[in-house]
UniProtKB/TrEMBL annotation:
GO molecular function: oxidoreductase activity
Lineage of source species: Eukaryota, Fungi, Dikarya, Ascomycota, Pezizomycotina
Pfam families: ADH_zinc_N
Domain of life where this protein originates: Eukaryota
Residues covered by the Enoyl reductase (ER) domain: 14-267
Entry protein name: Enoyl reductase (ER) domain-containing protein
CDD domains, per database record: MDR7
Amino acid sequence: MQISSSWVLQGQNGIESLKVVDKEIPRPGDHEVLVRIYAASLNHRELAIAKYPESEPVSLREITTGLGQHLDGNLQASTLTCAGLTAWNALLGLEGRGPKKGDAVLVQGTGGVSVIALQFALVCGATIIATTSSDSKAQKLQSLGAHHVLNYRTNPNWGETAKTLTPGQKGCDLVVDVGGLSTLNQSFKAVRPDGVISITGVLGSASDSRSARGIVLGTRRQFKEMNRFVHQHQIRPVVDERVFGYEEAKEAYEYMMAQKHFSKVCVRIEEGSGN
């Protein structure tokens, strides 16, 4: 019997309910694959299920046997299954409405979805308008290729400002909204008539000619399309400069809760080439 340690949520008292336990490594049955995980990127969903019941909680597991092949960029690859796929769906989920050369795309904040959406839209030839809360994060957005960066703390009417930065001041062709009710009003001010607002994780509706669509991850087909796109254009997803070790899972969640991160917070579960 082979044993591995796992971070498991035991209770709903926030991240303090995370405990390390030993578990038997399952044997794969017919038509099953046992996957070794080298790195995991954290999501705000985990913070929610740490307080409220969830039927299938996420756990971080360390496998101690020699299984699988090492791949390049394990930390970066760990961001694609959630943040990457969500961003891909937000930008290209509507057939024929994805960003193209000359379009204006607005991305909000510096979380994982927004940062990789910036990277995707930039490859498509779009002009990128990004929002953030600090000068240091603004510099990082500019280094990634953002054409305009607005500070939403010092400029609460950033939606109107974003509109003035578009050709003919008509508004953005596409807005990736990650704030929901707290940002939707400004998103509507920023988007052009017949433009699209993709609201990640929140379902919404529009009463005028602008389209608002709720985004929750994406499909298997979209995931395959995204991976081909990433490979073709050699896109390297951005992770925060601080990478946490397996034993530091609680500290990683505290870091994310404090909003100290830029893009995705990652935990290195096991050493491997490309980490």
